[in-house]
Amino acid sequence: MIMSAFIIMLASCANEIEDPELTSFRSVEPEEALQRLESSEDIIMVDVRTPVEYAEERIPGSLLIPLQTLEEEAPQHLTDKETPVFIYCRSGRRSLEAAEILVELRYTNVYDLGGIIDWSYDVEKQHAFGSVL
Q: Does domain 20-125 fall into CATH 3.40.250.10?
């Protein structure tokens, strides 16, 4: 009797297990991210900081979708759920949360780049007079 209950419990748990590729994201180091971006791979770089932070400094070509609106805005801006999406913020906390949100929304190629503070490559900065440097 106990063995039957155990087998039934295992079978019900097995039905809940999903493909790990669909339920997780990967971390990507800045070096690898830059290499992949330069290889002209179809990648969407998403900045999940605030508009003010984005205006001050950002990775060139990145798209601003603030964390607070990511769940609502992702379907509009990230229409192909299989396209690689690299997510970053300032230090890595918000990018981690954003990666989890995108996975919940069934995006399958999500990469957490962490924080722009670790990005030692070119950035666009807002000049004091409003022009981009």
A: yes
